[in-house]
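Sequence only, no structure available. Ideas?
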Amino acid sequence: MHLSAKKWFLVIAAASLLFITAAPLPASAASTPYESYNYNYWEEAVPAPAAYVPKLSISGADIGIGDFLEPKDMVVSASGLIYIVDSGNGRIVILDDQWKVKNIINEYEKDGEKIGFKNPSGLFVDEDEQLYVADTDNGRVVVLSSDGELLRTIEQPKSDVLASDFKFIPLKVTVDKAKRVYVVAQGIYEGIMQFDEKGQFIGYVGTNKVQRDYTEVIWRLLSTKAQKAQMVLFIPTEFSNIDIDAKGFVYATNIDPDSKEPVKRLNPSGEDVLKRFGYFDVLGDILFRRAVGPSKLIDVKVLENGMYSVLDGNQGKVFTYNDEGDLLYVYGGKGNQIGTFKIPVAVEHLGEKQLVLDRGKSNIVVFEPTKFGASVNEAVKLHYTGEDKLAVPIWQEVLRLNSNYDIAYIGIGKSLLMERKNGEALEYFKLGMDRDSYSVAYKRYRREVMKEHSGTFLTMLIVLAAAWLAFKLVSSRMKKRKLAMSDFASQTAKEGRPL
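Reply:
I predicted one. Tokens follow.
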């Protein structure tokens, strides 16, 4: 009997060990050097599976062209070519999607003279594979063909709205389909500079709002001229980077740590039309250590299907949102391991992969989506294109991987709402803490219940009305009879007759 118990103990122990070793580890713990998380309705950081994991890093030495030196920007064109602005070496490095060198441009010819780049800081590549280079220290935007031939330049603009001592120092650039050029320039607080296809300055778009400190305003009113001269002026924040989507909307970031709108989506009129329907503001990390400070958004990349990623230069993280302003996932961090950064400066995407350029390490880190990340991307795509019903099984797979993913509950709820399954939708909106959608579903469900039971309700109403009328009729007759009996008794008493 003792031996049998010992055997059973060994069998159970072996089975437990097999279960433990066979059980998959969370992606965030098994294959990433950073913590993966998201925020819930209560703005609490909740652990989540990793959406992207680092695959490899690429340096200049790895591709045989010598180390990158202070690289500042990176662009992936529509054809899949990768352009790196190798600022310290004064060159534009062009690679194919297999990381093979296609071309290196370090100078251009103008009026018969060879001119080299001086600290280029930004780049945009249009549909025709034309390059728009922010040649910062040369004070111009250079437009080149794919072969490096100079097409035109945008130099010191002339306008009545510009100060007489204005110096054009372009930092970042993007271009719309009408060939309008948008430039983030150093020392410009009025907004993003806009040029027409001929390079003529036509004004500013998207001025940042000033966050005024009203206690300082009151203090300023009570101060002397000398004190006022020493006070900080209320100057709008400069933009840090820009990108453009397929519809011609300009996405821009600023680095103001106090701003509630560090990301903007500007329409052709310069109005901010970014949707912010999520639980919290689109501004990177909600919670952070005081010693580290809030997110400092230094780049934005428009993805497909209304999604966009922003790069936090302060914490070295990438935050990806859908078109409604919901935070989908976070990856990255500061550190020395692959997948963490020293001084990240640009984020891009190559198909399903995401790329981050690290100026501090002089390399590019390639991230690939996990099962969780790919499922989220696919579900968001289906919802964005109106295929909510097809998105439901994908959202269910997301919930299998992460049961705390509120956006999946909301996604399923919206699909059920579209199918007029309002009662079922209520439960999913409740789980996803989407109060607005819950209210819509509740109103529809209430109307549906009333309509479904209107016949029964009317029948009951008629029965109750008939019963009330019968009761009133019987009560009236009984009251009359009682009154008649009372009158008869009174009359009999008066006449002295026995009852």
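The first helix runs from residue 2 to 22.
Hope that gets you unstuck.
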